[in-house]
Amino acid sequence: MSTLVDRLRTVLGERGLIADQREMAPFVRDFRGRMTGAAEAVALPASTDEAAAVVDIAREHDAVIFPIGGNTGLCYGAVPTAPGGRPAIVVGMGKMTSLRAVDRAANVLTVDAGMALARVHELAAAEGRQFPLHLGSEGTAQIGGLISTNAGGTGVLRYGPMRDLVCGIEAVLPDGSIYRDLDALRKNNTGYDLKHLLIGAEGTLGLVTGAALRLRQPNRTFAHGWISVTGPKSAVELLSRLQERCGDTIEAFEMLNRAEVDCVLRHIPRTRLPFNATPAWSVMIELAHTDPEADLVSALEEVMAAALEADLADDAFVAQSEAQAKEIWHIRHSVTEAHKIEGVGIVHDTAVRNSAVAGFIEAADEMSARFFPEARVLVVSHLGDGNVHYILMFPHDYWRALPDREAKALEVEMAVHNIAVRFGGTISAEHGIGRKLTSELRRLGDPVKLSVMRQIKRALDPRDIMNPGALLV
Predict the structure, then answer these.
(1) Euclidean distance between CA atoms 449 and 332, whole angstroms
(2) How confident is the model at residue 1 (pLDDT cuts 50, 70, 90)?
């Protein structure tokens, strides 16, 4: 494949191409080290035109393209696994990190796809605005990857997922043409809104190179609390009461079980519990308002006091300083890091209506105790939007001794997914399908929807150049 590599080097230069297998290693495996692929080269375009040239070269050589962002995904969507022996090119956006434009009046920030989410936060703050998407991996996760996976995070309850925060996209399509839609108009009723095909497509329909992002006015007053609830059903009732009292000032409403909190306390430095003992179930709450005079702390204390009076909760803590607030959210945002140390977690990204969360967890607990007694159940839930990360955590030694780990993982996933579907839910709320869940999507997805998706894929990418094997197989 030297001809392919030489052609790429001609366009990208030495600094824009990695062809050494050792140097490529971080680009061909997922960040948890569970799946490794192979590629002829890693292309690092520095502009949209260079990205388009890479696609053209791939077409010339019947190669396939595997887009990669910050490589923080959990479903192996960026791992290169070329079908039929076709040469594979990993395309990273790490050199495309520029700020293209800021429009304060329209509240729009236009950036390259390789910009890290944390940098977007900095740029928005410098303009007196905020970009309200927050993840534990925001220092690494890139805008292009967040768009391609329709990322969620803790603020979906108030702001929606990435789909609701993107107002324009630039992308290289599978035929090498450049789709430019960065006008970011509030109203534009001139046909299909094609950006929504690319958001959540996991790189199967094009290579995102730029985006216009919707900014918000910054919040100026906050309240943070952590409350020990008597169970998931009580947490749902607490959410309802909080919504009635505080409306859309609810920034985050995160539920965790005891095993999840203890996992973080055990493995992550500088974590501290504000209770005498870890609650069986607890909820972390953030309220925020643009009005600096809003008394959110009193409102949160009022709701918490009523919850204690109604026996929905048995202990509560309201942060009295920014440092105490950071301690609460440090625990929440450290769960993924703690999981890697604790064991091998089969992480589920299920979602049901929040009214069904308690029933779903109860049914999943019964199933897990019966069929997977070796595992401990960890739960972290974006309860406000019904997203439940139901995790079966297996000890490292147990997992290493399994004769077929992939089969075991699929067995666990199928069991939990069956329950989610029984409760009217989904098998993927925010992580995507990637390569991990293609068989499950085929098994449980709506046949009509899948048929339409395949027709769209064939229409835009008839040669299956873009991220083959991800999402649809």
Answers:
(1) 35
(2) very low
